[in-house]
Automatic annotation (TrEMBL):
Residues at which FAD binds: 42-43, 164, 181
Originating organism: Sphaerisporangium melleum
Domain of life: Bacteria
The keyword Flavoprotein belongs to this UniProt entry's keyword annotation: yes
Biological process (GO), any one: D-amino acid catabolic process
EC number: 1.4.3.3
Gene: aao
Enzyme's top EC category: oxidoreductase
Gene Ontology cellular component list: cytoplasm
Gene Ontology molecular function, alphabetical: D-amino-acid oxidase activity; FAD binding
Protein name: D-amino-acid oxidase
Residue ranges of every copy of the FAD dependent oxidoreductase domain listed in the record: 6-318
Length: 328
């Protein structure tokens, strides 16, 4: 018979796996159950450059509300990923990269306070209305997931592949259940606010790039390319209410063309693969607790395109919620 754990985490994306690692390293016995392994989740295909919530417009419902709370969660992430960048084998590094936006910023006074900020010189400007350099962590997600999985195992936790039929069922298995099911949370919760936001990336052979480029304009298309060793992750798209995880050849061509307009060396780079994921779009992150069948269920989903950056801050918040009441 399977030993009863202190905590059952549902979902093995970056939110679920980070939460599980944090709780296990705090001394709790943790099991993760997910329908697919970490490397098959949406998080594994993320562009994974930190900074999004720090650049967001408070009026934009991009899943980063309330602004003060999510900004603090992201600052926790910057600190955690900054420390991870000092350790080999984590997939994390801090490196300068260009950030750009097509529209002008109504107020850009805050930009100069961001890590490593400097304006792009004319010869560095890719033709966007706004362009500047930042030095923030970027993450090679497959390598990073291996790092998290190893940390979880070292702390006594494990990942199980399987489905959870209902939260009521999960509540019979552990005194604390953490729901980290992302875009699929509506199936378990009936939450009408959670929606899929489909993203597609193209993986190409690295033609010799060191620096990255990241567009933070709003809308269904953002140009980005992030080199990780011998490959480059090129993006991207953002299509609401689209559940398809099949690659779209037309989008592949568009992504390469947009990236090549910024970096011509990408035009002829050999395509290694196309990856599609479903971001968990919601007007605000849902991180709250409810009682269910004698168990405590903590919801931790709806991070839109900011899951990597918010993962550690939200994991710490889950830990505080559990600590305040204790584990039954």
């Amino acid at each position: 018979m399977t030993e009863r754990a202190d905590v059952l985490v549902i979902g093995a994306g970056v939110i679920g796996l980070t939460t599980a690692v944090h709780l296990a390293e705090q001394g709790l016995t943790v099991r993760v159950r997910a329908g697919e392994p970490p490397r098959a989740t949406t998080s594994a295909v993320a562009a994974a450059v930190l900074g999004g919530p720090l650049l967001s417009d408070p009026a934009d419902s991009a899943g980063w509300e309330p602004q003060e709370t999510t900004t603090e969660w992201h600052r926790v992430g910057l600190a955690e990923f900054g420390a991870l960048a000092e350790r080999p084998g984590t997939g994390v590094r801090v490196t300068p990269g260009r950030w750009a936006s097509r529209p002008e910023l109504p107020d850009d006074s805050w930009v100069a306070r961001l890590p490593g900020y400097r304006p792009c010189a004319p010869e560095e400007h890719p033709g966007f209305a706004v362009a500047f350099w930042l030095s923030v962590p970027i993450v090679d997600m497959p390598v990073y997931f291996d790092h998290l999985t190893e940390r979880l195992a070292a702390a006594g936790g494990r990942v199980e592949i399987g489905q959870v039929a209902s939260l009521e069922e999960a509540a019979t298995e552990a005194p604390v259940v953490v729901n980290c099911t992302g875009a699929h949370a509506g199936r378990l919760t009936g939450d009408p606010e959670i929606r899929p936001n489909r993203g597609q990336h193209v993986i190409v052979e690295n033609p010799g790039l060191d620096g990255y480029f990241y567009e933070f304009s709003k809308g269904p298309k953002q140009t980005s390319f992030l080199p990780h060793g011998d490959r480059v992750v090129c993006g991207g798209t953002a299509t609401r209410d689209d559940w398809s995880r099949e690659p779209d050849p037309a989008q592949t061509r568009e992504i390469i063309a947009r990236c090549a307009a910024v970096e011509p060396r990408l035009a002829q780079a050999r395509v290694l693969g196309v990856e599609v994921g479903l971001r968990a779009a919601r007007p605000r992150v849902r991180l709250e607790e409810e009682s269910l069948g004698g168990a405590r269920v903590i919801h931790n989903y709806g991070h839109s395109g900011a899951g990597v950056g918010l993962s550690w801050g939200c994991a710490h918040e889950v830990g505080r919620i559990i600590q305040r009441a204790g584990v039954n």
